[in-house]
Amino acid sequence: MDIENSQKGLFKFVKHPMLRKALEVLFSSIPGAVVLFVFLLGTGVLNIYSNLSETNDVFAASYIPIICLLPVVVGIVGPLILEKVRDETRLSMRGSILVSFLSALLGSGISSLVLVITGIASPEFKPFGGAILDNLGQLPGLGAAFLVLVVACTILSIIGGAIIVVVLGRAEK
Fold it and tell me: Of 27, 38, 74, 100, which residue is most buried, by most CB within 10 angstroms?
């Protein structure tokens, strides 16, 4: 179905096709971004708490598998929301990847930025764990952790977006 001429979907009242597409993608990326933001901020707070209570960094390493899995799930859910917003039954690879990318970039970027600001404001807080900050130093460690988290979440989310298009594409055949 050609979305340019479509009168279906949540934003059918927007007449300009490019603006309608942008609103659909932005709206579809918000739930995944919020979930990722809350989870990453929560893990940062748990890290701060574990470092203040003098526990070791094994606690921080214990939730790495969840941090790796959650962006893939966000990447899968975002395109499904886009499908419902557009009121279509077929997902496009480009739209799915865009929604997945935006969800991960917003969610991980904003939460990581909050954690970096917290780490700069209070050096005794170590939102990304003591092992990183003790070995690299405060500012380089915070910067490295920020970049790694945002890039890793974005790549994993894009993979999730591509996976759902391939799986649903094969299911339709």
Answer: 100
Q: What is the pTM of this model?
A: 0.82
Contacts of 40 (CB under 8 A, 6+ apart): 67, 107, 108, 111, 112, 115, 149, 153
Radius of gyration of the chain from its Cα atoms, rounded to whole angstroms: 19
Show me where the domains of the chain are located. Answer: 15-172
What would the pLDDT profile of 105-157 be if each residue is shown by its tens digit? 999 999 999 988 988 888 777 777 666 667 777 788 888 888 988 999 999 99
Host H or E run for residue 83: helix 64-86
Distance CA(76)–CA(82), nearest Å, equals 11
Q: Is 1 exposed, middle or buried (0-12, 13-18, 19+ CB in 10 A)?
A: exposed
- Sequence letter at residue 98: L
The amino acid occupying position 148 is: V
CB 86 within 8 A of CB 23: no
**Count of Cβ atoms closer than 10 Å to residue 12 Cβ:** 12
Q: In whole angstroms, what is the distance from residue 118 CA to residue 64 CA?
A: 21
Single-letter code of the amino acid located at 167: V
